[in-house]
């Protein structure tokens, strides 16, 4: 009996230690699972946001295709109504950025069949119809845009990430694309581009203003060793050509988020000087 009692207490102590260790181990596993669940939730949220963005882009592309088909049908209608059986055989020049005089010259040089003359279809009427259906390619009198981020980035952003400024109060000339954050230059000239951004406490944001693949401006906001937000603005005056792509991207991966709040927006703007 004297031997059995100490052995009983020894077994009880060992069992208590094992259960205590198992409890601590279980708590650690639960904590790790909670962290993994939070990470998966963030990933699912980001994927859902990207999916919505892709659906919006697809809808915009479908609308463009539909508008293109409608425009093509409108081009053909004046010649279908002319009563000319050979209207489908006539060829027309593509319109470029030439003057109206050059357009009229090209219209006069198009092919006209003998059947047109026999049917008394006036060349003047064809010129009028053709000019009516030509799309306008004139340069806008005012080119200017302003856009900003509606909210903070969801987390740190990678190097060369293009900032997509999703709110566009001004887009004269329709050069700025809200879907990818890129300004496509509508007309050659001298432009002013300016961008402002903010880093949060213990964060750093390095930005680059890009023209196609060339860096034409750099600025950074650095709060890496401070709890106070930092704010920076860059401005560049440059010559650009029609069709050039101008955008703001990160030069390096950001430390923490890119901030954009109602009191201090992260913005991108530009306008044509001359």
Automatic annotation (TrEMBL):
Keywords: Secreted, Signal. It is found in: Secreted. The keyword Signal applies. One of its GO terms (cellular component) is extracellular space. Transmembrane segments: none annotated. The keyword Disulfide bond does not apply. This is Complement C1q-like protein 4.
